[in-house]
Amino acid sequence: MSVQAPHSGGGPALKTGWYYPTLLQASVPPGADSMPMPARSTLLRPLLVVALVFAASGCSGLKGMFKDKDKNEGLPVSQLYDKAHTSMEQGRWSTAAETFGRLIAQYPYGPYTEQALMEQAYAEHKAGKYDDAVSTIDRFIRTYPTHKNIAYLYYLRGLSNMSRNTVFLSRAFKLDMSTRDLQAPQQAYNDFNIVATRYPNSRYDADARQRMVFLRNEFARFELNTGLYYLQRGAWVSAADRATYLLETYPQTSYQNDAVALLAESYTRMGNATLAADAKRVLQQNDPQHPWLAGNWPKGKGIIARLNPLNGN
């Protein structure tokens, strides 16, 4: 679903040159090596040392002395906005976000500022700068709590929170999000819930609800993975408690039958035949093809997964 920001109703930089003064060496008569250096030459030594120090340090120091001003500084607000918007149309999200930031810093009040904040948040999200996007959205919500596009900002914050912290690792190592810290996804769930409950008639409501279903399943899988972790280490009471928590907190998720199977396995290993039989009966009624009933669940992780230090186990 496209989340592009909705709408609310200076010349090129000059290059500075620099140079080192040329040190001319005077001709010396034959046999001058043994002659003492004149007093006047002694005075030139500090100048020569200074020149060598500048040469050794490179041109970065001198460039800093003559550094050009920010090319966006002092531009009219309309020109800044058009420039940032053009960068967005070209897919240069980081440049767009930076230009919108300059607009907001130079012109903190006015109709352009509201739109610039929204589009800055969108550009930061598209650039993968999710923490920055969340910060910008928080500022917008504090400043314009009754804005007509406030539902969009909560929805965009949910998308950013859903992606932050784990996105790089999950792409690079194909990590299971349910084994990671769920603080940001929980905040994303809260953001989508705000959209669904406060703004049910907004265009973002349906997608927000679908993402809430996905996140609930991820939370349930997190609890299941934790319970399996306890089971593998012989902490059967803790495994049963985690399965019970999953069933009570996240009912009707994709992992509720696995939670019942975990409960049955935990009670079986504890030697509580009555509770194990009850859990087995419930599992047979709800999922007669579940692999636990055939003795094929849970399965341990493969050798590659066990060797991966980032697999959450």
Q: Would you spell out the secondary-structure blueprint of this structure?
A:
Blueprint: H1 39-57, H2 60-65, H3 77-89, H4 93-106, H5 111-126, H6 130-143, H7 150-163, H8 167-173, H9 183-198, H10 205-232, H11 236-249, H12 256-270, H13 273-286, H14 303-307
Helix pairs in contact: 3-4, 3-5, 4-5, 5-6, 5-7, 6-7, 7-9, 9-10, 10-11, 10-12, 11-12, 12-13
Contiguous helical run count = 14
The CATH C-level name of the domain at 219-307 is Mainly Alpha
Rg measurement, Å: 32 Å
CATH architecture of the domain at 219-307: Alpha Horseshoe
Helix content class: 55-70%
Low-pLDDT ranges: 10-44, 60-68, 306-310
Molecular shape? elongated
CATH homologous superfamily placement of the domain at 219-307:
Tetratricopeptide repeat domain
Task: Label the structural class.
Answer: mainly alpha
Mean pLDDT: 80
Strand content: under 5%
Distance between the termini: 34 Å
Number of strands: 0
Largest sheet: none
Q: Helix-strand pattern, N to C?
A: HHHHHHHHHHHHHH
